[in-house]
Each structure stands twice: as C-alpha cells, then as structure tokens.
Amino acid sequence: MKRITAVTTVAVLMAMTSLVLAEPKVETVAEGLTVPCGVAIQPGTGHVFVADSAAGRVVRIVDGKVEDVIVDFPIDKYGKGPTYPIGPLGLAFVDENVLAVGGGGYPDAKDKLRVYNIPAAGGDALNADEDDAAALEIPATDKLAGEGNFYGVAFTGDALFVTCNGDDTKGWISRAGVKGAKVGPFMRAIATKELTEVDAPVAITVAPDGSLAVGQMGEISLPGDGLLTFYDPKDGAKLANFETGLSDITGLAYAPKGKLLATDFAWADTSEGGLFQISAKYTKKKQNIEVTKITGLDKPTAIAVDDEGNVYVTVIGSGEGASGKLLKISNL
Amino acid sequence: MKKLTFRRLAFILVGLVAGILSVASIDSLSAREKQVVELPLGLDPFKVPADNPLTKAKIELGKQLYFDKRLSSDNTVSCASCHDPNKGWSNDAAFATGVDGQMGGRSAPTIINSAYFPLQFWDGRAKGLEGQALGPIANPIEMNLPIEKAIEKLNEIPGYKQQFKKVFRSEITADGIAKAIASFERTVLSGNAPYDKFKAGDESALSPEAKRGMDLFFNKAKCSACHKGHSFTDLAFHNIGVGYDKDKPDPGRFAVTNQEGDRGRFKTPPLRDIHTSPPYMHDGSVKTLKEVVEFYNKGGIKNAQLDEDMKPLKLTEQEVADLVTFMKEGLKSENYPHVDPPELP
C-alpha cells in the first residue's frame, strides 16, 4: 500500500519534471504574411506551403524565403468585426506535386476546391485561374444552400475531405474522390450538425487509424464550445464526439507517435488562443479527453507537423497590415 | 495524513505546470442528483458546478427565496414577479417592472431551461446561474435591496436561519442565497413535447401542419442555424436586427466584449413552451409568434452586423402558419413546469 503510493508520487513528480523540461521553442520562419490560413508540408522536399490568404496567394517557404507558387486568388470578407479578408484557405498535398487548395474568396456556392500541378521550387508561379486545375463547386439546390469557405482540406489516399461553412443548419463536410489525375465529383458528405448538434466544422485531418479528426468551432460568440469529433470516411458515421473546452479549433495535426495537436483561435477573447495537445481516447463504451496548453499564440489559424515532429503554425498576429507569420515550434 | 497532503500538492503543481483545462470543476448530473431532478423526455443532462450539488433541501430553500418578496426593499417584488410560472416564467410586459414601478430597458427572459446556459442575460454578462442570482436583488430598478441588507432581513426569519444551517452548515451568506436560488432554477425544465415524442418514434404526435412546420424550421426557414439542440438554442449570441428600427439600438453583447462584431448581438432564447411567454425579443417589441415569423420572413432588420443567416425566406402564408403551429403545438410541454408559490417561513 505504502509502496504503491510512493510509486504514484514519483510518477507524478516525473511527469511534472518532464513537463517543466519540455519548454517549447517557438521560432518565426516567415513574416509579412496577411491572414495566412492554411499550411501543408510537401512530401519529398519537406518544404512548407502556406495559404497567404488575404494576399490571394499560395507560397512556399524555402530557407526562410517566401516564394509565390499560385497567385491572384479572389478575395472575400469574413466576420462582422473584426473582419478579415480571405482568399485561399485549406491546403493538402495529394501527391508530391499535386496540391489541393480550398477557396474562400467567392460568395458561398461559388467558392472552389482547386487541385493544381505545382511547379518545382524556383519555377514560375501559376495563376489561380489556371485552366488545367480542377475547379469544383457545391452549388445550391432547391432545398440546400450552396457551400463555401473551404477552410480545412484533408487527403485520405482516395478522397479529399473538405470542411464547409455554407449551410449553418447542416455543417457539411464535403468529399471529392481522387483517382489518378481525376478529382471529383465534389459532394456534400457528412452533415456534422445533424450528428453533433454543433456546426462549423473547420479543422480536419486524418487520424493514424484512418478516421477523420474534425474540429467543430460551434459559435464564435460562445467561448468553450469547440468539439473534437471523429468520423468514418467510408460512410460518414460519427465515431466519437468530445467537448474539448476549447473555443474555436482552427487546426488539427498528428505529430509522430500519434500525438494530436490543435490550434485554438478563441474569437471571443483571442488572448486565450494557443497551441494545445489533446489526448482523446474512445471505445464504443467509454471516452476520455485531456487537453493541455503548450503555448499561447496570437490568432493561430492552421497547423502542420513534419516527419521530425516540428510543428508549423500560421498566425494572423496583431497590428496593421501584414502581421501574419509562419511559426516553427519544436521541443514539444 | 502527511502523505496525502504531499500527493495533493504534487497534483496541484502538475495541474498548474501543465495548465490542464479544468473540466473537472463542473460535472454532469451525478447518480444522486438524477434522483432529485427528473429530466423530461428530449433534454440532455445539464452541468452542475462541483461546489453546488443539487439536493432536495437546497432546491426547496431556493424556491422559497425565489418567491419571497421580502428580498426587495419595499417587500413588493420577488423573482417570480418578473419570471412568473404562470406567464411562461417570464411576464407579459415588454419591459419588466421593479420596485416603485421602475422599468428597465429589456424584457424578462424565461427561466425555463436556463440551466443549460453557460452565460446568463441577453448579453451574457453573468457566468452561470450562481453568478446571476444576486444581481436582481441588489439592482436599484429591480428589487433594490443591497445584499448585506438582504442577509440582515433573512437573519430575522428563524425558518431561513435553520434551513441555511441545515443546507450549507453555515450562517446566511450571499453565496448560499445564490446557490440555493440557482439550484431551484435548475429544476425549471421543459421537455416532453409532441416534438420529442415524434423524435422518439411516435409518428402521430405531430399534426400534419406541425410536421410541415418542423421541416421548415430545420431546413428552408433556417431557424435551426441558431435555435438548435434540445432546448432550441445554440447558447450563443447573434444579431438579427431587433431594435435597429429605433434611434439608439441596444448594443447587446458589444457592451460586454467590446468586439465590433458583437454589436446588436443577443442570446438566442430557448423555444420550448414559447407560446406561454409573449411579448418576444429582448425589447419585447414583437407581440405574437406569427409576427416573429414574419420578422424572419423579411430577413430581420438590416444593419452592419446582421447575421449571415438572416436573409428573406420567401415563406408563403401557409408556411408562416405551419411554422407557428410547430412552435405552438410541437414545442408545448405536456408537463409544463407549473410551480405553486411555497409556504414561506
């Protein structure tokens, strides 16, 4: 009895020290971005790609230098104050040179999911309207509103799953099948609000077990209502649904060894925003979640992790003009 | 003993270092609490602060305080004066009237299902029911009784002194008053409506009109963009334009957050038993449910912060009527929370 207690105490203290030691290192990789809203790491090269949203471009960062890859995306507005100009949003690589870009620059029903064959580093930038790139939309029907603001894009190997922000009574995640060079059709797939009663799916990534991990923002005016949900990409079934206590999850990514990381924008009070580690376990009968803050961040919008476990986060930042940054966070 | 303290300290330290979000301070209903309050069909369990578990004796004490006019400066006003069980736990005036006939600028919201709101008031300025309960007692235009005075007054009533001893093992305190009233409010629940029976599989629970209204509510009319979940509220704040036809619209949530996007945003009210609590909206400016639907049908009232989901709906007259029927019949509880004023000590 006594021994067990002693062991527990030691374990607790060890956990403490390891947590104290793990002071994360935060470096700025690129500055001068305007409302960056998406980040992805190119397979093969390890180059970091960023959707520099309000600048209407997708860039790659090579040795700290920002290089245009796709330019001239249209720009729309998001939010009622603060209001952010937004263009390209979510990014996901389908293949080393094939990049999917979720659009936010048109009104709902006109926004596009585009898939580009991108040039190698140092090559000429593409135009967003590139004829060869697939351009998929989700128009309105008699019953359903059109979709737009394709914030999160995740690739499962045979399909792109895209979070949408059109119909607030449904909270759609849409799907576009990918077969070789063929992408589409692009269709509404999971009505998150019908399954969880919360809408605004925003962050999305593929979990190590192949399920879709989704961050649902809920209402930006209500703090603490953010959900982490898991869906089966095959049939859209809800596998688990966690109340995270976070407010507005904008990014989700798995680090090596299956560690789940999330960025919380925290609209209602952005001083609460930051990078969080989430341990979410579930079986059919039981579920358990623990959420730990790693570091505060100024309006984080997206996250990606490289093979070594370095975390890349885009932040909008504060101040006039191009206050956006790409941060690298290591030593977690 | 020593061992325990050390471990506890270690825990607290880990908590601090790790900054683990404290989900632990609020729990869903415990098995014991489930015996104290019965959840009507269709409602989810609500959260109860860990330091204020529900007990029968506390709820009873809270009920007495809720109905007791002695908690006002001139013994004329109780919580129930403005949140009257016979008037949808609200009242029938656009603006609530407090002591000396004074009127505020907002309508009294219903207490029904307020157990679910993390933020209270039209603008969400109070946290939880405990954080709200003392406000109206001290508010000069409501009950106008400073809390120290209220405690003094209650201290003269042996029945209250005894109950506080029993429930809180303490003297009468402001904290105790808030906890007791909040506990009582948590029992004011509405569910078990034809809508819930329909969802549970009873196809005949809704009339054809109400069924059509339900379909409109969740689809074409987009009501469920905001009025969602078991209590028909997202618990959040939206600008639908109420008051923007007046000179100085109420700033709503903006006054609390100072974020421009929150200007004119008010809390989405729950809609169960909504037919019992006209007039509607934060300023009581809309008299009937039909007028409410007509307000939405024209897209609310334009302003810079108007919610994106507020657009003209192009509902026909029949569709307007069906939506009203859905709210009136479909959301009418079969066991509306009737509570008679208790005998006061």
What do these coordinates show?
The complex is a heterodimer of chains A (332) and B (345). Chain A contains two helices and 27 strands. Chain A has helices spanning 2-21, 192-196, and strands spanning 25-33, 36-41, 48-52, 57-62, 65-71, 76-78, 84-86, 88-95, 98-103, 113-117, 126-127, 134-136, 153-155, 159-163, 172-179, 182-191, 201-206, 212-216, 227-231, 238-243, 249-255, 259-264, 274-282, 287-296, 300-305, 311-315, 324-330. Chain A has a five-stranded mixed beta sheet with strand order 2-3-4-5-11, with no helix packed on it. In chain A, a hairpin with a 4-residue loop joins β3 (48-52) and β4 (57-62). Chain A is globular and about 55 Å long. Chain A starts with a helix and ends with a strand. In chain A, 48% of the residues are buried. With 345 residues, chain B is mostly helical. Chain B is built from 14 helices and six strands. Chain A binds chain B through residues 5, 8-9, 12-13, 15-16, 19-20, 79-83, 143, 168-169, 193, 197, 199, 218-222, 224-225, 243, 245-246, 268-269, 289-293, and chain B through 3, 6-7, 10-11, 13-14, 17-21, 23, 118-119, 218-220, 222, 224-226, 228-230, 234-239, 253, 257, 259-263, 265, 304-305, 308-309.
